[in-house]
Design goal:
Blueprint: H1 14-17, E1 27-30, H2 32-35, H3 46-51, H4 53-59, E2 63-66, E3 70-71, E4 83-87, H5 94-106, E5 110-115, H6 125-130, E6 144-145, E7 161-164, E8 169-172, H7 187-202, E9 207-210, H8 226-229, H9 242-255, E10 262-265, H10 272-275, E11 287-288, H11 292-295, H12 300-314, E12 322-324, H13 333-336, H14 341-351, E13 357-361, H15 419-423, H16 429-442, H17 444-448, E14 450-453, E15 460-467, E16 470-477, E17 483-484, E18 491-496, E19 509-510, E20 515-520
Parallel strand pairs: 1-2, 1-13, 2-5, 5-9, 9-10, 10-11, 12-13
Antiparallel strand pairs: 3-4, 6-8, 7-8, 14-15, 15-16, 16-20, 17-19, 18-20
The protein binds 1-deoxynojirimycin.
Length: 537
Amino acid sequence: MPGPPADPSQTVEATRDTSLWWKSAVVYQIYPRSFADANGDGVGDLAGIIERLDHVRALGADTIWISPIYRSPMADAGYDISDYCDVDPVFGSLADADRLIGEAHARGLRVLLDFVPNHTSDQHPWFIESRSSRDNPKRDWYIWRDQPNDWRAALGAGSAWTWDEATGQYYLHLFLPQQPDLNWRNPEVVQAMHGVLRFWLDRGVDGFRIDVAHCTGKDPTFADHPRCLAGEPLADFNDDPYSHEVLRGIRKLVDSYPGDRVLVGEVNIRSTATVVQYYGAGDELHMSFNFPPLDAPWDPVVFRTCIREVDALLQPAQAWPTWVLSNHDNERHRTRYGGSMRRARAAAVMLLTLRGTPFIFQGEELGLEDVVVEPGQRVDPGGRDGPRGPIPWDFAPPHGWRAARTWLPFPPEAATLSVQSQWSQPSSMLHLYRTLIETRRASPALRLGSWEELPSPPEVLAYRRRHGDDDRVVCINFAERPLPIDLEGDWRVAIDSLPEGPDRRFDGMLQPEQAVLLEPLHRPRPQPQQQRQPLQP
Ligand code: NOJ
């Protein structure tokens, strides 16, 4: 089912007022190993995702990004791909992928797949050929050198070069040795990878999240880099102009398809000024992840600096921002905030009211924390098991999973934080996310409006969002003590991160670690019959 969702009545209202649907989107990241398991082997699968799509819809997100589902030896949990045009048996089959795309579209959900252009698996037939002899026609599809330089690989893999005994050269891998880097300067590689994109675009996906989008181009002189000498992996700062050419080619291809397909890049460089370059002149990425909030502690200075910087640098470049607090590579934000549910609730208000597209990592809508993984249970060579724990669906063990043992243990408090438990509690985190998304969807100011910082005490972040007559204010108190804020005008609390509850006149006091979304007191309120009923999955 190619193109955008089939049932327009189910799509977000936002998609009607702009063809740039992704600006109004709320994206939900599915990590397939840990989302839902239909076949009972303890590892999530595509049939499991289909069974639980109604959860995403009931939450109110309108787009899913699914981490890699392709054939893979799983040295890096699927980011080491041995066949881009097939589904790994652990997740199901190509027919399941087609069914998933169709079922998502039928519910008004768009689907983004993870595209991993920088490297394949060492088990990919292309690499097997490439390493078979120096004169193999695919030798140049990868990056081979007689001498290594000082470039370092990520995931603690040491040198980015591995010696190949049989052919007497080193090959380059910015990640594990099982993930050799493709040579995108070879036109046959470009053609083959464009074929991969077409394969999935033809099957109807709505776009891609592009893994390490800044890594496909490498310094052609292979000069040593002092930051690598100091121990940093090249993937953390690689920024060769050729990656832009690669992205322009991908963008052109994607734009040739109908339906506003979208590219979201992982440009894992902690420099907003550099990241903004990857939007090109509107001819590279549509959106790029903005990484500083993924590491940020619960600190108003860090957030204020990052939000101001995004505003100052992206706005003039007409680059649309993204906001993300957690993903499969980083500690979950509730854990990062010291396990505080109160802070995680306030952060949800911030995530869903900033200017830009929010990305929700599965389970953050439940307030999940990282799993505690004993040394003998560790799976990821990069030490990133923590955020990857299975989603607890039901209160009672095995929490809606059909196996006695899941591939990773459940996160702490699995029973009380389960989806089932939280649906029945109106004050739960799940309902907070649902209400925030619903409110965002109904508010042009929150989806597309301007952003302006308001004067506030240093430990409070306050901003105003406006679009036409629609006017909202958000105040987030990062402090552990109550703080006042002096706002012009009269405001009503529309959403409160604390269970104190909304729908009262704002008295200018913020409770410790409280966030509120305010609307003008005299704004006409929607009649009850106009309000959407919350969906139950
Ligand atoms: C970024 C992905 O998010 C991560 O999980 C993976 O290990 C690396 N890229 C390499 O593909």
